[in-house]
Design goal:
The protein is an alpha+beta fold. It has 4 domains: about 80 residues, no CATH class; about 130 residues; about 140 residues, no CATH class; about 70 residues. The chain is about 65% helix and about 10% strand. Strands 4-5-1-8 form a 4-stranded antiparallel beta sheet. Helix 4 packs across helix 6, helix 8 runs antiparallel to helix 12 and helix 10 runs antiparallel to helix 11. It is elongated and about 190 Å long. It starts with 12 loop residues before the first helix and ends in a 15-residue tail after the last helix.
């Protein structure tokens, strides 16, 4: 007779409940033992109090980088997160903690410090204990820093925190203060000496060359040369016009008779003289107009027409004159000679003026060349004065800043504001009795259950008949319940 193989035995809720009821006294014993131990330990544990204080860190002069000297670059502010981290590092520094403990007293701060390890001094062990119980955090990524200290005595906890805040203000000023006013004052005196020296060199250069303002003198000379150049062009134009006039007069004089009839049997000679005089005036007008207008202009054309008509009239009158006349100097000829002499004199005068103006222009050009050669040396000296003046002003401003900063440091004006001083705590933060008892109950229950299952696992019998059938690989025919109390 063959049997089908048994399926793997599954653990059911009945099995679990059977084990729990079977080992109930072990579970209860372990549970009550652990719970009682945790409760008694919590009650006997010395209470620990926590005092805390909050300070706000403001962006101030010490958190802005400024060049020491010689630079006019704008100030650069540091990163806020780094500034807060720096202040936290100052708060947790060994020197501040040591100073707090020494101020309060090692025996007062930690009365049981005599039990410190042999390799550490009492002070070092106290410093380590305080640093472990000290908590410094940045509140919600703001500018506020929370300083908390846990201690078994609430008065000492509050006092230690407040001392730590006070020492932070002093240490902050010591670290960020820059007592450099004396050094900068010496630099100001040195820069003042350099400025006086460069200014004296520039003044001596101006006196040696008779200069007051090189730029202004160059401007005035250039304006004077411009005026002289304008005058020269005006004189040259007048000279050219006079030259043309003189050429015309000289070309006309051969056409005018030197001698004319002085007497005549008729009155035509008088008319002829007036016509010739008029002709001369017309020619002079024509010469003057030709210097200002083109030959094709209406005015010049009208004058030429009048000259032609006047010449034709004179020729007609001269042909009708009687041959029996008395000869004498022609007044027209004489006027031409006078005009030619006058024009030559004016021409020579204009030439003299042109030469004089050219000579003055040449002198101005030589002076400008000389000024241009002095300009480089003057600019070098001026740059030295400007540089020394700028450096002197920078150092002077730095001295004022350093003095103000030192006065603020002496008045302990730090950019740290105390939001709340540490008050004496009323309730302890440790131990948390309810939480500890709850944890003890949970641990007792877990330990009791775990130990019950461990005992059940290592026992030699079976809890149910199915377990025996599975191990023997035989079917169950009869199952009889058994209780020890009935045997």
């Amino acid at each position: 007779m063959t049997t089908e193989p048994q399926k793997p035995l599954e653990v059911t809720l009945r099995d679990v409940m059977t084990i729990l009821f079977k080992r109930k006294w072990i579970i209860l014993g372990v549970f009550w033992s652990i719970t009682t131990l945790v409760t008694v330990g919590t009650i006997l544990m010395a209470p620990t109090y926590e005092a805390d204080s909050t300070v706000m860190l403001k962006m101030g002069r010490e958190h802005v980088y400024q060049s020491e000297v010689g630079s006019t670059k704008p100030a650069v502010a540091f990163d806020q997160a780094r500034i807060i981290e720096s202040e936290i590092q100052i708060l947790t520094s060994r020197d501040l903690v040591k100073r707090v403990i020494e101020t309060i007293g090692v025996s007062t701060m930690y009365p049981d410090s005599d039990n410190a390890p042999k390799d550490l001094s009492v002070l070092e062990a106290s410093i380590m204990r305080m640093k472990e119980s000290l908590s410094i955090t940045n509140v919600n990524n703001s500018n506020v820093i929370r300083i908390a200290l846990q201690h078994q005595t609430p008065e000492i906890a509050a006092k230690a925190v407040n001392l730590l805040v006070d020492f932070l203000l002093e240490r902050h000023l010591q670290i960020f203060s820059t007592p450099r006013a004396d050094f900068l004052e010496k630099q100001v005196a040195t820069r003042q000496t350099r400025l006086d020296h460069s200014s004296a060199n520039l003044q001596e250069f101006k006196q040696r060359h008779g200069l007051s303002s090189l730029h202004e003198e160059s401007r005035l000379l250039l304006e004077q040369r411009r005026d002289l150049d304008t005058s020269l062009k005006t004189v040259q134009n007048a000279r050219e016009g006079l030259k043309s006039k003189l050429t015309s007069l000289i070309s006309q004089i051969p056409n005018v008779p030197k001698l004319i009839s002085l007497t005549s049997v008729s009155e035509r000679q008088k008319v002829l003289d007036e016509a010739k005089s008029n002709l001369l005036k017309l020619r002079l007008q024509e010469q003057e107009l030709s210097t200002r207008y083109k030959k094709t202009s209406r005015r010049v054309t009208n004058i030429l027409n009048e000259i032609s008509m006047t010449q034709h009239f004179i020729q007609e009158q001269e042909s009708q004159l009687s041959d029996k006349v008395t000869k004498g100097k022609n007044p027209v000829y004489q006027e031409l000679e006078v005009e030619i002499h006058k024009s030559k004199s004016e021409y020579r005068s204009l030439e003299t003026q042109a030469k004089e103006i050219k000579r003055q222009i040449d002198q101005l050009d030589a002076t400008l060349v000389e000024l241009d050669s002095l300009k480089k040396e003057h600019e070098t000296l001026q740059r030295a004065v400007d540089s020394d003046q700028n450096n002197y002003s920078i150092y002077l401003a730095k001295v004022e800043e350093a003095r103000v900063s030192q006065e603020m440091d002496q008045l302990k004006m730090a950019n740290i504001s105390i939001i709340q001083l540490a008050a004496i705590p009323v309730k302890p933060v440790k131990p948390k009795k309810a939480l500890n008892i709850l944890i003890g109950i949970i641990l007792g229950a877990l330990a009791g259950f775990s130990l019950a299952f461990v005992f059940e696992y290592f026992q030699g019998g079976y809890t149910r008949s199915e377990q025996a059938a599975q191990d023997l690989e035989m079917p169950i025919l009869v199952s009889i319940s058994h209780k020890e109390s009935l045997t």
